[in-house]
Recover the amino acids of this structure.
């Protein structure tokens, strides 16, 4: 049996669906913050790359949902959305900052290894080939 709705009720159901889509996207972004943190702490670089790609996809979906629901949103809803998004942004910004610092640290270690290898060659060690993981074994 079909439920008949008047236009106002139908509009409300459509509005509710659009607003729910926005809330679902934000919840997915919040969950991805936890996933990114887990992958970052475990140094699961492949998983981190996938989570970042998922984050871009969900962010794009959120933008689309926000545009679709522009007529359904009110100021209170927008303020709640932006509050949650500010928290997500703060967490993601801190995560990306830590990832950037880690990348810089690894780069510095690799430059140091290269300098020592060059120094070893300059004093006559023709086959100065340190193990590829020198100094990096302790990171595992």
């Amino acid at each position: 049996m079909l439920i008949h709705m008047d236009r106002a009720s139908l509009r409300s159901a459509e509005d509710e669906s659009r607003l729910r889509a926005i809330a679902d996207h934000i919840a997915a972004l919040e969950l991805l913050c936890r996933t990114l943190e887990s992958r970052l702490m475990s140094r699961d670089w492949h998983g981190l790359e996938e989570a970042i790609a998922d984050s871009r996809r969900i962010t794009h979906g959120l933008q689309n949902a926000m545009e679709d629901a522009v007529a359904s949103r009110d100021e209170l809803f927008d303020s709640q959305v932006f509050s949650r998004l500010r928290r997500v942004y703060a967490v993601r910004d801190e995560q990306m900052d830590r990832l950037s610092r880690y990348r810089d640290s690894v780069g510095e270690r690799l430059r140091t290894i290269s300098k020592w290898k060059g120094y070893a060659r300059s004093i006559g060690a023709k086959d100065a080939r340190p193990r590829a993981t020198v100094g990096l074994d302790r990171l595992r």
Summary: The chain has one domain: 14-139.
